[in-house]
Structures are given as structure tokens and as C-alpha cells.
Amino acid sequence: MTAALTRPELTAADRCDRCGAAAQVRAILPSGGELLFCGHHSRAHSEKLRELAAEIQQG
To answer: The DUF7455 domain covers which part of the protein (predicted)?
Structure first.
């Protein structure tokens, strides 16, 4: 049996890893790590995240 890990929904307490604004996007990296971004920084880094094959979750 395989157990699937789920990540909780983003809340008002979640902050952007770049600037500290409210997080709107969670980027899950293939390695299993995650990054939280505000709308501005998610757009700024979207191309690189696609290159890394990150899974994007909108909050």
C-alpha cells in the first residue's frame, strides 16, 4: 500500500519565502522541498519553476 502525502491548504499565516507577503502559491520541487511565493514572486520565478518540473498549487 502506498501512502500519499498531502500538504495543507495555504492560510493567512503562510508567507512568501522571498519577501514575507502573504503566500498565494506553493511550488513543490521534485526533491520534495517546497517554496511559498506571493503572486508577484510566483510570476517572476514561473519559468524556472517549470524548468525544474515543480508542481504548482494555487492557494
So the answer is: 10-57
